């Protein structure tokens, strides 16, 4: 039998069928709950259950919800199921975001950023005005109905340009077949903007931004939007890569030193040789070493689900408040012909 969900803020109701997740039911009935990865890793679809409880398949909590958080009523809507009526709060999902639209863009340039990573620049039509929040992403749509998602690496669409950072994936249909063959003038169908990874100005807390791989793309967009702003909070950026030659944005990031408030950039390498004089290991561990008390910080995580899951746990042990922790997990979509990242 179906179960009723009451929304605390509005008094609205919707119904969840036995075979559905709470998120699927909300989407089917036009209730907005923002989501990204939809496998329980990023935390974007977190809601507060204010009456009753949700359950999960095989009683297994998703990565973004700890045991104590489940007991406190936090839930991942993309995995949550119901065996009774509940009431939820959607206060965290009430921000107004730009409307999503489809637009045809032309390839402006395709170039190597470093080994295994491409920079793809797209040109929007002159008569199309697209708004987005720095940190959001877009979908590239294909004729067979598939989509590939990539974070936008620029703060705005100045001159109609959109920059994407694309990591090659072994066997990836887009990254290893389509992308190398793209040339200036080729058209791509985009759906944009999407996602809820963006700077929460209302927080105004010192920011710790943590990225692995091309997870630097949306963080680059956010930080570019804060350049030379008087109200920019203190910023620490940690970027995890394998080797020094992988740090394709290092010089650009270092040039922001005098344009952001108390800016600190810490590249962290996991496979550097003896010549590397900087931080080694994993970004989440380096953050805790540098910042033993994270209770006053806003934290932005972008990259692999493993990093994000570990970072959430570690950071909470160091005082981080889940209310001020935002994440964009790069899921990998695969089928018989492809295995590509769903973000950046």
TrEMBL record:
Keywords: 2Fe-2S, Iron, Iron-sulfur, Metal-binding
Domain FAD-binding FR-type: 100-200
Cofactors required: [2Fe-2S] cluster; FAD
Record-annotated 2Fe-2S ferredoxin-type domain positions: 3-94
Pfam families the UniProt entry points to: FAD_binding_6, Fer2, NAD_binding_1
Alphabetical list of InterPro entries matching this protein: 2Fe-2S_ferredoxin-like_sf, 2Fe-2S_ferredoxin-type, 2Fe2S_fd_BS, Beta-grasp_dom_sf, Cbr1-like_FAD-bd_dom, FAD-bd_FR_type, Flavoprot_Pyr_Nucl_cyt_Rdtase, FNR_nucleotide-bd
Gene3D superfamilies found in the cross-reference section: 3.10.20.30, Nucleotide-binding domain of ferredoxin-NADP reductase (FNR) module (3.40.50.80), Translation factors (2.40.30.10)
SUPFAM superfamilies: 2Fe-2S ferredoxin-like, Ferredoxin reductase-like, C-terminal NADP-linked domain, Riboflavin synthase domain-like
Superkingdom of source: Bacteria
Keyword Acetylation tagged: no
PANTHER family xrefs: NADH OXIDOREDUCTASE HCR, PROTEIN RFBI
Protein name: 2Fe-2S iron-sulfur cluster-binding protein
Source organism of the structure: Alcaligenes aquatilis
